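Appendix C: a fully annotated inverse folding record. The material below is reproduced so that readers can follow the format used throughout the book. The structure is listed first as tokens, followed by the designed sequence.
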């Protein structure tokens, strides 16, 4: 007797992975976390010989670790098999080495963590970008699962709880509730700082305001000032006062004391009504309008200009634009200084893990719905790039140890976020990060002018930071391959912020390399040729800037009848939440 049976269905691994890829691409995985991991797993499965060799090597390491474990359990001394990386401070307490139990907990965690990361970076058949993305997302999960992050597997937290009779846990719970109410893991207490009171206190006046920017003109502190004024174009991704934190850390005050006539941009914190503001507007209503105001007040035909991060990218774009629009004699910028600035986005640093076509569509849809990109979302992404130091450190110390974060002005500034207009940010991500069009001659047009970076003939002083993960220094050096004028490149120690907020101190805490740069030069060749100096590059920059700033003259007015004072520094836009 015949029976009706459904035909057998065979599902191959290829079909499973294909279905998962399709699901990820249709919006289930908008940030691209799953796809790199799937690709890495599939790559290893399709390279069985490499997988077997790697597994054999790992097995040998595990045997060594097992032998070490038996030694420690029997009370015998032994060298650690797995060591934390030099910058990994999670296991710094002596208990993680002195106690056999906690030493083995640490080492087994590190063994599997290091093996997974090594395998992902060595994945056969994948591009280096896909390897980095897969390793990044796995690393975030591994960091989250570290034994230091949980009370019962953190001996320091247990010891503090016993020593304080549980008070550390009570304080930790209070810190957790306060962070929950604030909507973020706080890195410092907001009540410790107030802009205009103990941050951004350098005296000055707002001398221009439009819908995008306030221009602050600072009161001179030297008896004479250089004739050519100095404009600082700050990034609108953050607020301007990173360059005017406290008197001892303020680049603004340092320049004033050196006899420079200093202006700075303070960008408006945009809301939904500014959704259609574009990059063109930041150029014309921001940089161009600021320069026109400065020329009106100072009566100088030209200004020197500084740009930081995206402010530096905007300044480079402005210079390419101005050199095409005006005759050489009419270009209103005499020289340009660029801090941690990218114009070539081929390898834009760790931020690339968040950027592909899928995440771009996701972000654009979110921005179109709101009219802007929320600053907290961007801040969270940047913190995720350094999750151990910028997230889990504060979870452990705040919630498990019950500690109150100490006052730290840079971290307060980092928490004081700004929003991005939808149109501007979508253009920035598409044309610069994804398509890398700025380095292509006449591939982009801004405010009616095609852009060609080789038209920039003004002297350029560029500063990068050795540990910068947002604008990697070798990528920042590629600016030297495009501009045509005299070029001076400096490599500061430290990272994206502290490499720039780097005041001279004695004895020196940091160092820098400096040297002339040539077009089509290799950054590593420049590195070998550049001179190493202890201290702050600020002093070297001032020596470069003085000859380009005109003679010393009596200080002019901070404001004029044509450009009256609209408010005291730090202005009103910086206070907007």
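Designed amino acids, in order:
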């Amino acid at each position: 007797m015949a029976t009706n049976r459904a035909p057998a269905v065979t599902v191959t691994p290829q079909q499973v992975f294909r279905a998962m890829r399709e699901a990820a691409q249709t919006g289930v995985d908008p940030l691209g976390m799953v796809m790199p991991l799937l690709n890495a797993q599939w790559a290893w499965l399709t390279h069985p010989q490499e997988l077997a060799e790697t597994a054999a090597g790992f097995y040998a390491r595990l045997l060594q670790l097992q032998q070490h474990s038996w030694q420690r359990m029997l009370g015998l001394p032994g060298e650690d098999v797995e060591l934390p990386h030099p910058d990994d401070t999670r296991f710094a307490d002596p208990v993680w080495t002195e106690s056999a139990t906690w030493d083995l907990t640490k080492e087994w965690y590190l063994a599997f963590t290091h093996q997974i990361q090594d395998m992902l970076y060595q994945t056969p058949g994948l591009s280096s970008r896909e390897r980095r993305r897969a390793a990044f997302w796995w690393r975030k999960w591994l960091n989250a699962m570290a034994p230091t992050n949980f009370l019962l597997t953190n001996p320091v937290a247990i010891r503090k709880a016993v020593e304080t009779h549980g008070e550390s846990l009570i304080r930790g719970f209070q810190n957790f509730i306060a962070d929950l109410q604030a909507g973020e893991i706080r890195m410092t207490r907001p009540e410790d700082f107030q802009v205009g009171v103990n941050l951004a206190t350098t005296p000055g006046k707002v001398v221009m305001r439009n819908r995008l920017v306030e221009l602050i003109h600072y009161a001179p502190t030297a008896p004479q000032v250089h004739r050519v004024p100095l404009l600082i174009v700050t990034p609108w991704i953050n607020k301007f006062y990173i360059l005017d934190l406290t008197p001892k850390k303020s680049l603004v005050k340092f320049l004033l004391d050196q006899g420079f006539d200093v202006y700075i941009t303070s960008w408006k914190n945009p809301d939904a009504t500014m959704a259609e503001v574009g990059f063109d507007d930041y150029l014309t209503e921001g940089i161009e309008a600021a320069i026109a105001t400065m020329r009106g007040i100072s009566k100088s035909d030209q200004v020197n200009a500084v740009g930081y991060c995206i402010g530096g990218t905007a300044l480079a774009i402005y210079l390419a634009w101005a050199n095409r629009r005006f005759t050489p004699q009419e270009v209103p910028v005499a020289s340009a200084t660029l801090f941690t600035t990218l114009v070539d986005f081929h390898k834009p640093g760790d931020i690339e893990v968040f950027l592909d076509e899928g995440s771009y569509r996701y972000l654009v849809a979110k921005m179109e719905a709101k009219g802007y990109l929320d600053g907290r979302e961007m801040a969270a992404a940047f913190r995720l790039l350094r999750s151990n130091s910028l997230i889990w450190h504060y979870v452990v110390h705040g919630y498990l140890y019950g500690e109150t974060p100490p006052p730290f002005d840079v971290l307060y500034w980092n928490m004081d976020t700004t929003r991005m207009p939808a149109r501007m940010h979508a253009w920035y991500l598409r044309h610069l990060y994804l398509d890398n069009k700025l380095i292509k001659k006449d591939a982009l047009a801004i405010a009616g002018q095609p852009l060609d970076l080789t038209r920039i003939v003004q002297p350029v002083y560029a500063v990068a930071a050795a540990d910068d993960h947002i604008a990697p220094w070798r990528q920042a050096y590629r600016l030297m391959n495009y501009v045509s004028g005299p070029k001076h490149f400096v490599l500061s120690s430290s990272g994206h912020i502290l490499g720039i907020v780097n005041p001279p101190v004695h004895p020196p805490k940091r160092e820098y390399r400096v040297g002339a740069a040539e077009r089509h030069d290799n950054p590593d060749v420049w590195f070998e040729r550049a001179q190493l100096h202890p201290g702050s590059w600020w002093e070297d920059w001032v020596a470069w800037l003085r000859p380009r700033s005109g003679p010393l003259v009596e200080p002019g007015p901070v404001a004029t009848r044509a450009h009256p004072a609209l408010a005291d520094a730090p202005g009103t836009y910086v206070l907007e939440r």
